[in-house]
Automatic annotation (TrEMBL):
PANTHER family: DUF4371 DOMAIN-CONTAINING PROTEIN (PTHR45913:SF21), EPM2A-INTERACTING PROTEIN 1 (PTHR45913). It comes from Acromyrmex heyeri. This is GT2D2 protein.
Length: 295
């Protein structure tokens, strides 16, 4: 019985885009794996399949990947090609799947965007990506998504704000939320801790809280519009000397109040129509049919 033919990988074969991965000689361009590893077999494969697309001048870039030569004065196409070879070389050395290239590109884009579209070598090297750090970041992301889901599906929530000064004499605002679900179960969570660098007025605190809620997809200003409209409506009725200065909302529990609400609505129907004309002209056109005969 003859032993299986084995030949050690020769670094020269890297010029033809072959690499040794898990003790297997594989073409990095198409994944071809020869059954017998011979130089002339690899050379023939490269000449037939890839020589037209990958010229010798491009292959020289491989030897500059780990060298100290700079490409500052090179054209953008050369820089792009050099980066492609450098990343492909790292993927090969670490025995990663070829499809990881697109994932690496997404990581690079995300990192550059995080640094304001300007990322230096020192800044890239300073990005913490150890195993423990990545696990901690993923836990934070999952926690944020869970809170976002709770806020989106909750019936009610209340806030608790605590403003204090740390040992650096910096004002810190802690934002807590009690989130109530439809089944009356509730959770209490710390949404965020915000540093207030300048003043700590009510506007500063409101803006900090609003920015925190925007992270969870909720706009405090937009959410408060209905309450602002209600106050405008009450003030409008007072300035027009209406018989009633407000209309309480109908509640199914207090079903006996439905008749009184309708009576109040009918008594100030003219003022309601004028309010819609002044503040909500589009809504006024939609409900104009109900206010045809105001007398």
């Amino acid at each position: 019985r003859m032993d299986k033919y084995m030949q050690l990988f020769d670094k020269v074969w890297e010029e033809m885009f072959f690499a040794s991965i898990n003790n297997k000689t594989i073409c990095l361009l198409c994944g071809y794996q020869p059954s017998i590893v011979k130089k002339y077999i690899l050379h023939r494969h490269y000449n037939i399949k890839h020589s037209k697309d990958y010229s010798k001048c491009e292959l020289k870039l491989i030897y500059n990947i780990n060298s100290s030569s700079r490409v500052d004065n090179a054209t953008p196409s050369v820089k792009t090609l050099t980066a492609s070879y450098a990343i492909s070389n790292l993927i090969t050395k670490n025995s990663k799947p070829f499809c990881e290239g697109e994932f690496v590109k997404e990581c690079i884009i995300a990192a550059v965007e995080s640094f304001g579209n300007s990322l230096t070598l020192e800044e890239a090297a300073s990005i913490p990506l150890s195993d423990k750090t990545v696990k901690s970041r993923i836990d934070d992301i999952a926690y944020s998504l869970e809170l976002k889901s709770l806020l989106a599906s909750c019936s009610f929530f209340s806030l608790c704000l605590n403003e204090s000064t740390d040992n650096r004499h910096m004002s810190q605002l802690s934002i807590f939320a009690r989130i109530m679900q439809n089944d009356f179960s509730h959770v209490e969570e710390l949404l965020d801790s915000v540093s207030l660098h300048d003043t700590t007025t009510g506007i500063d605190i409101f803006e900090a809280v609003n920015q925190t809620f925007q992270k969870f997809g909720y706009n405090m200003i937009k959410g408060g519009h209905k309450f602002l409209s209600h106050r405008k409506f009450q003030h409008f009725l007072e300035t027009h000397n209406a018989f009633y200065t407000d209309i309480p909302l109908y509640c199914e529990v207090r079903w006996l109040s439905a008749g009184k609400d309708l009576e109040k609505f009918f008594a100030i129907r003219k003022e309601i129509f004028l309010f819609l004309q002044e503040y909500f002209p589009t809504k006024c056109d939609e409900f104009q049919f109900f206010f045809k005969n105001l007398d």
